[in-house]
Amino acid sequence: MGTIPSQNIEQIAAANDIVEVIGSYFPLKRAGSTFKALCPFHQEKTPSFTVSPQRQTFHCFGCGAGGSVFRFVMDYEHLDFPAAVRKLAARAGIPVIEERGASGEDDRQHETRRMLLQLHAEAAEWFHENLVKAKIGAAAREYLKKRGIDRRIANDWQIGFAPDSWDAFLNWALERGYRRAQILQSGLIKPRDENRPEGEAYDRFRGRIMFPIHNDVGEVIAFSGRVLEKESEGAKYLNSPETPLFRKGHVLFGLHKTKRGLIEADCAIVCEGQLDLITVFEAGITNVVAPQGTAFTENQARILKRFVSEVVLCFDADAAGQKAAERSLDALLQNNLIVRVAEMPAGEDPDTMIRHRGKEEFEKRVAEARDFFDAWIEHEAASTDLDSLGAKMQLARRLAETVARVHDPMMRGEVANKISARIGVARGDFERLLAKPNRERVSPDDAARESRTAPLRHEVGMLCLLALRDSEARDFLLAQNWRELLAQTPDAEILRRILEAELRPDDPASINAFMAGLSSGDEALVSSWMVQRTPPNGLEVAKGWWDGLRQATLRRQLQIAEGRMKLPRLTTGEAVNLQKQILDLTEQLRELSEFSSARVLDT
Question: For residues 266 and 25, is the Cβ–Cβ distance under 8 A?
């Protein structure tokens, strides 16, 4: 990918008011000159998440999370920095400028992504035209009509049709000017012999209804193809393979359309298939998603946690649906999501239920969805001979393995109570079966937040605050020999970066652009300084702390010189030079101490 210049980042930051951006995800309440909310990055009962409109930063005094508007979007939506910039740029209608670096590999990756996005966008349009206009799409149109999908819905979701032909798409793409190697890279065609990619190739999707898969900013990155008839050979659904654009376990179908509904409901209704999701959404129930496959991955659960705290699984009412729910549990629990299960009638799914019984019946099922553990314990207990001690203990061990994955201690205790009561095992005996929750699995976000709490030396922290917030203090520090001094000062890397940056203390956009280049830990540290009060005499305070840094550096140099004097076998010249150095450092310390004392008396 190219480098986004700081001027462009600053322009995008200036166009995105942080209160409006964060307020679009969850409500903020005014508290004096700032806004507050419950922190989305950790569990709390009293709001400690603060947003400053003046400084255009956020900071949580509970967990330490904080930073710029870019950092919020990155952490909340689990995006990398370029994706967050593009998202905020699109929100403000500002073009993103990407400068090409010297790396040929970066250029190739950027061009590959651009080419694949263009190919997927054009392929989606071609499949769609086949469905709505071409004669070959007649059977698919009739099938969708029976499923309640009319032309308007097909247009809204850009549903398409892949001809039942070995190479119709391949020939179309070649005629559009795409090279065979590029089409192979998209995954839309596949080689007949995987060991000879240069050999004969054919269309991956043939005779299938095509559902474009979008990323959360609406770009087509893959496809899912559904067979027309149940009796057809092959899988009911066929997804694109993993490509530079698409990683199956990192994408939720429909999220680009349903994000707002998820946030407003704080609950996600999870369906198995694309048609289920579309039928539910078009019925006016917009807080719905579908995994690419049946069971949730940890990445998908983490994405979902950005928007909701509760999940209702609406998988098919068969053994496969039950297994899918169980396989999803671990990933959902790892992200502290509340999980409920809506029971579908035998042979029904959300699509057929809404079409045959109506939206209200489906909503009733969702509202009455049982807690996952209640339904799961009942299902497992009903299929076990509880009069058999051996069978009971096997069941207890199996249940304990799952309960051990529950991170929340209160929830874990409640589930343990239910299990011990239902299967007739003493609570203490069941608890002994529980493995301790795996606390070694720390997410990158958690690790970053833990690193945010690492304390800086007070004088370094105060100089950082002043260099960020006070123009006079910043000008004073820049006029000093700061590069040499900070190179000898422990923990001063963040102060060096602040002084090197071309930021303006009175311009929040320039500070946001500076923060965008920091690690999450350093950005959280900076955000904490942005919400602190600055001393009214910032210049004098900066001079005092700067003198303190200089004195500390001189003392370290003096200590090192005195230590070297004690080394054996020094030459006469070396001893003389060290004595001169010690005298010089001692004199510098005396003068600096007298100067600092005089400055204090003057103030």
Answer: no
Plot region of 239 (φ>0 → left; ψ -120 to 50 → alpha; else → beta): beta
Token pair listed for 170: 């391949």
- Which residue, among 342, 345, 317, 341, has the nearest Cα to 329 in the 3D structure? 341
Distance CA 358, CA 348 (A): 13
- The distance of Cα 106 from the centroid of its chain, to the nearest Å, equals 23
Tell me which DSSP letter residue 26 carries.
S
Report the distance separating Cα 447 and Cα 41, nearest Å: 13
Q: What is the pTM of this model?
A: 0.62
Stretches in the chain below the pLDDT threshold 70: 1-2, 99-107, 197, 230-234, 293-295, 316-326, 435-456, 594-603
Nearest-angstrom CA–CA distance, 269 and 317: 15
Q: Tens digit of pLDDT for each residue in 140-152?
A: 999 999 989 999 9
* Phi/psi at 17 (5° precision): -65, 125
Tell me the domains of the chain and their CATH numbers.
6-92 (3.90.580.10), 104-246 (3.90.980.10), 250-368 (3.40.1360.10), 377-433 (1.20.50), 450-602 (1.10.860)
50, containing H or E segment: strand 49-52
Residues 425, 253: Cα–Cα separation, whole Å: 42
3-state secondary structure 234-296: CCCEEECCCCCCCCHHHCEECHHHHHHHHHHHCEEEECCCHHHHHHHHHCCCCCEEEECCCCC
